[in-house]
Amino acid sequence: MHEMSIAQSVLDIVLQESQNHKVNRVLSVAVKVGELSAVETESLRFCFDFLTKGTLAEGARLEIERVQVTCRCQECSSNFTVQELIFSCPACKSPKVEMLSGRELSVESFEAE
Predict the structure, then answer these.
(1) Angle CA(15)–CA(7)–CA(102) in degrees, nearest 5?
(2) What pTM does this model have?
(3) Alpha-carbon dihedral of residues 48, 50, 54, 58, nearest 10 degrees?
(4) Residues 57, 27: contact at Cβ < 8 Å?
(5) Positive or negative: CA dihedral 17, 21, 22, 25
(6) CA distance 31 to 107
């Protein structure tokens, strides 16, 4: 379950930034998770909740924003959202596409007091 190591990395980032800013308590953490990142969001939540026990982030909400897979066609320059993992342009049917989003995995922000 790689969600445990991801949750640990998220927590490490938040705790380090909390220390840098003299935070007393973390209330929420916002992360972006791309659809192709192979992260199961409920497992990530479970692991985060487990790992935060006894830390400044205990009880913090993990807010997960799922990011759709979007591409740009290299032939006609159309931008489109990938449906059913079909990586070809719906406008011109070209398979020559550049992925713009969908692989993200990042801590965007956190709320603290």
Answers:
(1) 115
(2) 0.87
(3) 50
(4) no
(5) negative
(6) 4
In the chain, count of helices (H) and strands (E)? 2, 6
Tokens of residue 26, six digits: 């973390």
pLDDT tens digits, 39-59: 999 999 999 999 999 999 999
Domains annotated for the chain, with CATH where assigned, are: 3-68+102-112 (3.30.2320.50)
The dihedral formed by the CA atoms of 1, 5, 10 and 32, expressed in degrees to the nearest 10: -40
Predicted confidence (pLDDT) at residue 1 exceeds the cutoff of 70:
no
Residue where the block lists tokens 């479970």: 46
Q: What is the CA radius of gyration of the chain?
A: 18
- Cα(39)–Cα(24) distance, rounded to whole angstroms? 29
Q: What residues form DSSP beta bridges with 30?
A: 63, 109
